[in-house]
């Protein structure tokens, strides 16, 4: 009988909004030739701890793999793994993903996580699973952090080409549970066509994982996956969750060309400077391929702040304005995220960015906006983090503290509670967000019909035009009443 490996995706979003747990599907793809894989999704079960314990007992499984992002996932993963370890002390528990990769020392201080796989996990996890089942020398398992008295690190595995990986084993999931309805369509799924990012913005959590490497699937493979999803689950919408989908123009254009006629509306992430370097012919092909919206990190309306963020490339506010205008011509919605409240003098850069955002909206009123607050991530040589630490910022030192109410909230990047972003800074951002979300409600909220959009715009018009954002309680109440949806926390 095949040995069983259990994988656990802690809760990550609100009911009915679960996303395909690709972090685990990707590592599972390397196991199914020898192991039975059971994936337990915290978004789909009331009591993941009990379900894991029952499964371990029923299959005599030796190993549990857990994917963890900071925030709600971490908050559930800590108590669940504690309970599972108490009930199954011989079970090896392995954490991977963004949080443990960036905070492995803190994770290994706990007495319920045995190993952390750092960065890309497919190859390393397979070797660790074989080690746990067959024995050998743990030092031969790459990309590993483990404790043996001190914390030990093994050499990182080179980033493996995604094209060499087996396709995701979708049959380990009840896929119908992940087919969603959103702005993109009535049957929307997600995929990941590349891993990593060639850039090193110093507020981004992927940098310590990818170290500026990027590995991508071929357009042929992406198109085959899209056709398979069309045939098996009749999708009409696709969210590409790559950190940076549009790195290579020829690849993006060939994918778009191959998807034309598949009748799939799609969304992906890219950079304004990269997309501004694309030719008009490329945009013609993109615009015919079903791409509806492209997420781009505009980050700031202040070029000095972009430098401080090490945004790199040919980035600049001119590129943000340029791509807003260009996408209007091709009927593609630009979705810009901003990272506000950076130290040392947040108010000045917020003022500048507010005026810049209004300019972007003038150029392309359909532009979508996401306003994050700068939340430090551990990065060597990050000027932003050094500035933060010099102002008294420090990361929690235990998992219990990370999973506590305070930090679970802070990890959502809306109220990081950093020394320099206390009120009035936080309030200034949220009040502006309330007014601009009323004056330009998100197109992604399908429930928001014409009349309510008109009412929101009318009530907020005077504030927006007069730059008067303080205490917009009347708008906050109305947005609360209609449960205004914010894509950054709930996805589409
Ligand atoms: C899909 C997604 C979501 C989904 C949930 C997905 C889920 N698992 O249920 C939704 C939309 C709900 C979501 C919400 C949020 N997200 Co999110 N999310 C992503 C996204 C876009 C894709 C993740 C993914 O599937 N990648 C594809 C897989 C193949 O790559 P991977 O996850 O890196 O996995 C590889 C390795 O990391 C490793 N690995 C990962 N897990 C494991 C586990 C084991 C055992 C092993 C061995 C290896 C391993 O191996 C995998 C294969 O190589 C990432 C960005 C990205 N492109 O990765 C952001 C990202 C992870 N999210 C992020 C954040 C901040 C959030 C939110 C806090 C946003 C907010 N303000 O609310 C919330 C918090 C949710 C929570 N904590 O519960 C940040 C994390 C930043 C950080 N500091 O770590 C990211 C990196 C985005 C960013 N650009 O900053 N998210």
Written overview of the protein:
With 492 residues, this protein is of the alpha/beta class. The protein folds into 2 domains: 4-153, Rossmann fold; 179-422, pyruvate-formate lyase- activating enzyme. The protein contains 21 helices and 16 strands. Helix 9 (249-259) packs parallel to helix 11 (280-287). The longest helix is centred in the last third of the chain and has 18 residues, at 346-363. Residues 9, 12-13, 19, 21-23, 26-27, 65-67, 69-73, 94, 96-99, 117, 120-122, 125, 192, 195, 204-206, 241-243, 377, 411-413, 488-489, 491 line the site of cobalamin. The site of cobalamin has 42 residues, from helix 1, strand 3, helix 3, strand 4 and helix 4.
Question: Brief overview, please?
Answer:
The protein is of the alpha/beta class.
Any idea of the CATH topology of the largest domain? pyruvate-formate lyase- activating enzyme
Which second-level CATH architecture of the largest domain applies?
Alpha-Beta Horseshoe
Ligand set: cobalamin
Distance between the termini: 42 Å
- Tell me, what's the shape? globular
Quickly name the level 1 CATH class of the largest domain.
Alpha Beta
**Total number of strands:** 16
What share of residues are in beta strands?
A: 15-25%
**Helix content percent band:** 40-55%
Instruction: List low-pLDDT spans.
Output: none
Question: What number is the mean pLDDT?
Answer: 95
Order of adjacent strands in the largest pleated sheet = 2-1-3-4-5-6-7
Number of domains: 2
């Amino acid at each position: 009988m095949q040995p069983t490996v259990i994988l656990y995706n802690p809760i990550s979003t609100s009911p009915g909004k679960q996303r395909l747990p690709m972090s685990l599907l990707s590592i599972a793809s390397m196991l199914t030739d020898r192991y039975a894989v059971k994936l337990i999704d915290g978004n789909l079960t009331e009591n993941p701890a009990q379900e894991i314990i029952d499964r371990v007992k029923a299959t005599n499984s030796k190993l549990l793999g857990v994917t963890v992002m900071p925030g709600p996932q971490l908050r559930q993963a800590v108590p669940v793994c504690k309970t599972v370890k108490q009930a199954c002390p011989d079970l090896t528990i392995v954490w991977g993903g963004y949080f443990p990769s960036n905070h492995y020392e803190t994770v290994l201080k706990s007495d319920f996580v045995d190993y952390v796989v750092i960065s890309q996990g497919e190859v390393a996890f397979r070797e660790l699973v074989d080690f746990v089942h067959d024995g050998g020398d743990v030092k031969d398992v790459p990309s590993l952090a483990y404790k043996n008295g001190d914390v030990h690190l093994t050499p990182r595995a080179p980033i493996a080409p995604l094209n060499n990986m087996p396709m995701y084993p979708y049959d380990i999931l009840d896929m119908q549970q992940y087919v969603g309805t959103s702005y993109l369509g009535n049957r929307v799924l997600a995929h990941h066509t590349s891993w990593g990012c060639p850039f090193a913005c110093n507020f981004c959590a992927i940098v310590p994982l990818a170290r500026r490497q990027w590995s991508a699937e071929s357009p042929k493979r992406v198109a085959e996956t899209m056709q398979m999803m069309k045939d098996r689950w009749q999708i009409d919408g696709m969210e590409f969750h790559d950190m940076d989908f549009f790195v290579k123009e020829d690849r993006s254009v060939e994918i778009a060309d191959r998807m034309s006629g598949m009748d799939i509306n799609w969304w992906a992430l890219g950079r304004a400077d990269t997309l501004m370097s694309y030719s008009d012919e490329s945009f013609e092909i993109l615009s015919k391929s079903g791409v509806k919206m492209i997420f781009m990190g505009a980050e700031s309306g202040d070029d000095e702040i972009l430098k401080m963020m090490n945004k790199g490339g040919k980035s600049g506010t001119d590129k943000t304005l340029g791509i807003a205008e260009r996408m209007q011509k091709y009927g593609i919605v630009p979705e810009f995220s901003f990272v506000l409240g950076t130290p040392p003098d947040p108010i000045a850069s917020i003022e500048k960015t507010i005026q810049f955002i209004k300019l972007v909206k003038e150029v392309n009123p359909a532009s979508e906006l996401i306003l994050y607050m700068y939340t430090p991530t551990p990065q060597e040589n990050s000027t932003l983090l050094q500035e933060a630490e010099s102002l008294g910022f420090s990361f929690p030192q235990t998992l219990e503290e990370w999973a506590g109410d305070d930090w679970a909230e802070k990890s959502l990047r809306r109220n990081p509670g950093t020394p320099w972003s206390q009120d009035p800074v936080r309030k200034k951002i949220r009040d502006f967000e309330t007014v601009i979300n009323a004056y330009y409600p998100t197109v992604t909220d399908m429930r928001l019909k014409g009349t309510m959009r008109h009412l929101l715009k009318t009530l907020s018009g005077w504030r927006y035009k007069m730059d008067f954002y303080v205490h917009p309680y009347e708008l906050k109440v109305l947005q609360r009443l209609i449960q205004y949806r914010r894509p950054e926390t709930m996805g589409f």
